[in-house]
Write a structure and sequence with these properties.
The protein is α+β, with helices and mostly antiparallel strands and 226 residues long. It has nine helices and five strands, in the order E-H-E-E-H-E-H-H-E-H-H-H-H-H. Strands 2-3-1-4-5 form a five-stranded mixed sheet. Helix 2 runs antiparallel to helix 9 and helix 5 packs antiparallel against helix 9. The N and C termini lie close together (6 Å).
């Protein structure tokens, strides 16, 4: 049935409240970071449109979640984020300003019609006033994706700064033991301290939910491409 893609469309919240140069600088920084970190995943690199929008396309549905997770670590700006799944129909599949197809259309619809307009389908999943995210497809039941994403955010957003720092270290250095990470942080009881912080941070619940979400996204893509 043809290749499918995931498009991620960002729009800066309340962009008029920021100096134009600040928005431009922050978006360019985020663009460079995403394009470098996910260069193997992106079929169309992120680029700025209309001054306060950032769009990119990746080949893997599951990778789209990992990219959005990274976007949430940006603290300079808050975004409306739409993730759309579908096709890229144009011959040019490398330039976001030329390429088009249902993946891009669905991402913009998810961002503008669902999130920005406060549609009830998207509104029920929004937890914080910072980044607001919605996943949309016209080919599979997209609310299953949004419900799992909501569960992940529900537990992640409650983490303290210290808990999040430990989670980041565990994810950044998967080969390290809790003992190693605890010693790096200077704890007197390294293994126990890290274990306790991860339990309080609901690390295993979030970790398994993320696995379930990426597995679900991969399944949908596989079915659509048969």
């Amino acid at each position: 049935m043809g290749e499918r893609y995931a498009c991620i469309a960002l729009d800066v919240q309340k962009s008029r409240e920021y100096p134009l140069q600040q928005v431009e600088k922050s978006l360019n920084k985020l663009k460079r970071e995403l394009n470098e970190q996910f260069k193997e995943s992106l079929s169309i690199p992120f680029d700025i449109r209309m001054g306060d929008e950032l769009l990119g396309v990746c080949r893997s549905f599951a990778d789209a979640y990992m990219i959005i997770k990274q976007i949430h670590k940006n603290t300079e700006l808050s975004f409306y984020i739409g993730c759309g799944f579908g096709r890229i129909d144009t011959e040019d599949k490398q330039n976001i300003n030329v390429s088009n197809g249902s993946a891009i259309v669905n991402a913009i619809e998810a961002r503008d019609d669902f999130v920005k307009e406060g549609d009830q389908e998207a509104k029920i999943w929004q937890i914080s006033d910072s980044n607001k995210t919605f996943f949309y497809s016209d080919e599979f039941p997209y609310q299953s994706v949004n419900s799992l994403y909501h569960l992940i955010q529900h537990y992640s957003i409650k983490r303290s700064e210290k808990q999040q720092k430990i989670v980041d270290l565990v994810e950044e250095y998967p080969e390290s033991t809790y003992e190693d990470i605890g010693e790096r942080l200077g704890y007197k009881s390294p293994k126990t301290s890290v274990s306790n912080h991860l339990k309080a941070a609901n690390f295993e619940i979030v970790n398994q939910s993320e696995h379930a979400l990426t597995e679900l996204l991969s399944y949908h893509q596989k079915v659509l491409e048969k």
